């Protein structure tokens, strides 16, 4: 059967015996550089057998279910990642998780999930939305297609008429597409489940669902400009949940001063690099990013270290709870791992909000600094995935990654004092802190070699 044509079907061979790791990828950006430069890794094309595949989600959708994979083989997505990475499903799962927490642990615990803006799925929750809309006259809402990226298809509104126009348009398109393709069930959401990709376009979807979400009208501004944060989380397993947080990330700034007077101006309101790059004020050299370290220092100098600690702890809470909300829903498969890009917006009260989680965060570099960040991020991802079989599995840190959750919270081993005031031990996260990854990796691999020698 051609579909089952061996993916890593070097049956019977032990992991250590494999001299070369055969990789495949559909992307061409910093990832290709990292994979090609990795010692002992060789690229395979077309139908060649592979041990490691960094695929896009459309490949996964079409092929995963009929691809045989050997024990050691690894692939860069979970089968139903969309439960977290599609805007409507993410919210559905978070709402369900919040209810469950309320039942099992009480209101206070459930309130720890209040980090996503009020959201309705459209058109199916249209009437609920209208009810909410009427309760809060004058506020701003944002409409976002559930499965597109890079700010495409988004608009802000304050009048119900705008949504009614949108609805008429969607209903009209839906009817037309059904008439044009009577054999295809275009309204079945499962047919468009995985349609989200990194840089790929999803504009060919005949019927599109949206979410209507409360717009955060009071974003924290720096130099009068709005920004959001991109943070990377690596999940190695859902059952048990095992997740790593990367120290580096960045803030993405808008080029235009923030105002609520021009809600139609995407350069003011959407911080996606893909949007800002096309702005007339964009300077390719200056770019529109700050590394997280710079951002953290800036905040500390203005608000003091405690406020910053609290903000970053609240962000850790977002990463862990969002993963917990899907940990029983996502099909855990030992072949799968996933590197997520979280979009976090901070408001002027220093409260972080979760906007969305990306299954295929952009790996294209927009500057030299960005290239370095992404290259290191990917190198460290491959270290954690550990095709080479070098780790013991007990590591709490690998390069820029800190183990954040391992079937439970992971505490810092350095015995740092608890500044959280909760009496909990300090969690093992260092977002926006110094990332001396090179030194750490050197020490780690040195000591692993010593252990190996000692045991052989
Ligand atoms: N609820 C919101 N409040 C304020 N700004 C938002 C909100 N949702 C999205 N944005 C802005 O729009 C941008 C794109 O939204 P996002 O949900 O990340 O969709 P996309 O998949 O197109 O990136 C965000 O990076 C942020 O700048
Ligand atoms: Mg986004």
From TrEMBL:
PROSITE patterns named in the record: TTL
GO BP term (any one): microtubule cytoskeleton organization
Biased composition (Basic and acidic residues): 193-204
The keyword Nucleotide-binding is assigned to this record: yes
GO-annotated cellular components: ciliary basal body
Similarity field: Belongs to the tubulin--tyrosine ligase family.
Source species: Carlito syrichta
Descriptive protein name: Tubulin--tyrosine ligase-like protein 9
A single MF term (Gene Ontology): ATP binding
Stretches with biased composition (Polar residues): 183-192
Region called Disordered, residue ranges: 177-204
Iron is among the record's keywords: no
Key words of the record: ATP-binding, Ligase, Nucleotide-binding
Protein encoded by which gene: TTLL9
